[in-house]
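Hypothesis: this fold can be encoded by more than one sequence.
Test: take the structure tokens below, design a sequence, compare later.
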């Protein structure tokens, strides 16, 4: 898979190593969806997967960490698990919207472009044409929003030069 920077990169992170601390990438050749495919069936992961940006919360009965179910990372993980038909065993997503909410392109458009492309590949590999179409629609919505933003910023620049 293509390697793209995302806060960390296998080609440069080793420069952060010292004689007492070594940076090692495990599974750097696999994308997020490929990793999700590998771990989705593991009970220990189903009880403990933490992907959320928000402050950790814990399930009152189990004591396990739980995710919010609403932030960008939660939405992309839930979508991936739904594509794999593996969401139900995950105890770490107790609070979430109805399942059809997560397949709406306007919701999926919150996911960063690089991860949408990755999820499109996952939907394709698992023969989920409905998910693939929703993700492609979300990707187009995201790209259109970027074009609209660039166009409005360009028109603001041209207006300011006319004065």
């Amino acid at each position: 898979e293509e390697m793209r920077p995302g806060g960390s990169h296998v080609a440069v992170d080793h420069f952060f190593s010292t004689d007492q601390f070594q940076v090692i990438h495990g599974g750097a050749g696999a994308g997020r969806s490929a990793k999700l495919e590998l771990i989705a069936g593991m009970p220990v992961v189903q009880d403990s997967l933490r992907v959320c940006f928000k402050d950790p919360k814990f399930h009152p009965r189990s004591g396990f960490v739980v995710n919010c179910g609403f932030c960008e990372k939660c939405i992309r993980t839930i979508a991936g698990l739904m594509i794999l038909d593996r969401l139900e065993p995950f105890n770490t997503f107790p609070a979430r919207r109805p399942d059809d909410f997560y397949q709406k392109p306007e919701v999926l458009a919150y996911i960063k472009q690089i991860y949408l492309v990755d999820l499109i590949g996952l939907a394709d590999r698992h023969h989920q044409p409905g998910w693939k179409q929703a993700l492609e629609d979300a990707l187009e919505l995201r790209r259109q929003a970027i074009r609209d933003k660039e166009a409005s910023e360009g028109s603001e620049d041209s207006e300011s030069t006319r004065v």
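The helical segments are 32-39, 43-48, 72-83, 105-108, 113-125, 129-162. The CA atoms of residues 104 and 144 lie 16 Å apart.
Hypothesis status: open.
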